[in-house]
Known about the structure:
Layout: E1 10-15, H1 20-30, E2 35-42, E3 53-57, H2 63-70, E4 75-78, H3 91-112, E5 116-120, H4 132-144, E6 151-155, E7 160-161, H5 169-181, E8 192-193, H6 194-207, E9 211-215, H7 217-222
Parallel strand pairs: 1-2, 1-4, 2-3, 4-5, 5-6, 6-9, 7-8
Helix pairs in contact: 1-6, 2-3, 3-4
Amino acid sequence: MQNKQIINGQTAVVLGATGLIGSSLVEQLLNDDAFSTVRVLVRRPIAIQHPKLEVCITDFSDYEAYKKNIGTGDCIFSCIGTTNANVKGDKLLYRSIDFDIPVNAARFGSEAGFKQYLLVSAIGADAHSRIFYSRLKGEVEEVIATFPFDGLHIFRPSLLVGERKEKRLGEVIGTVIFRIFSFLLPSKYKAIEGKTVAKAMLLAAKANKPGINLYDYNAMTRF
């Protein structure tokens, strides 16, 4: 089946708009004529202002308000995610962010008629993994794949690099190690810039390829 190029005037919804990938994605969407409305769902106000930007302050545990803020549109981009340090080891809280938020967005979005869902997952995502993080990401992928979107696009980066608002010691150390030994790693495990993932998500949405599509390092850097 041929790709259907996306038409201009699309509405995009972005989750995780303040993160490394999400912030770059929002910037790229605002500068792309294919999208006339960029609706971001955030917990707190953000400093960005733009004629195309809609900022919806959202309590993700209030499902009625969450569904209302999703609204109607064409593409949902889920870049939401946390870290074990941020939730202080609380696995239930971790799951409420990394599982509940993207899955509920898929549920509300499919009911509202969105055609495409673009999800940032992770390399090694596997619903049957013994590793909590990999298992959680795999479960998210499996559940979202059950919703009737025309196109589901799953991006599986390894270590993300780029300028973050918050410095994560583990990722700083990991980045140094990855760069030193990157030549020893299979390509799918190579570190990738957050803005590169964001660009791949944007271009995948514009390509409008149907079905379930998986993107590893090689696929994301080919865009």
